[in-house]
Amino acid sequence: MTEMVHFQDNKKRRRIRIAGLGVAFIAGIASLLLFDYTIHATSTNAFCTSCHSMQITKQEYEDSIHYSNASGVSAKCADCHIPEAFVPKMITKAIALKDVYHELAGTIDTPEKYEAHRWTMANRVWDQMISNDSRECRSCHNEERMVTSVQSELAVASHERAREKGYTCVQCHKGMAHAVPAEPDEE
Q1: Does position 30 have pLDDT exceeding 90, yes or no?
Q2: What is the 3 state secondary structure string of 15-71?
Q3: Which residue has the higher pLDDT, 33 or 148?
């Protein structure tokens, strides 16, 4: 009789373990799906421009060639500001939390406050782009595929000089999607 009880206890424990593994597996899949949804949802133009302070840059972006152009190809906020690779993307997302904090804390929640901090914020983005060789620019713009025959002589010469000096895109092309803010001493 004890053997039968022992056998039934083992069978019951085994079923509980299998059920527990099943629940853990389903919870893991659900967590991954929620994580993926959150990453994508927080990378949309609607999310990026949902704060009051981002209305300034939203209008600049919508007036830029990155939004509306002859080819009909439009870059999204994430194309320029969020890396594709997982680890750099997660680092960028973590760093971006400071912008949400400053919006909620009231540091940049009005156009005047935003403009007061804009030079510092822009330089932070430019420094990041310089440090990663304008990785996000290059995800769309490929130097090897540039058709120099349709570029102006000045553009061809400027690109050659930039290559020789080891410049990256943003060192010459600041203000392509957003206005270049005035330096604090210029005001």
Answers
A1: yes
A2: HHHHHHHHHHHHHHHHHHHHHHHHHHHCCCHHHHCCCCCHHHHHHHHHCCCCCCCCC
A3: 33
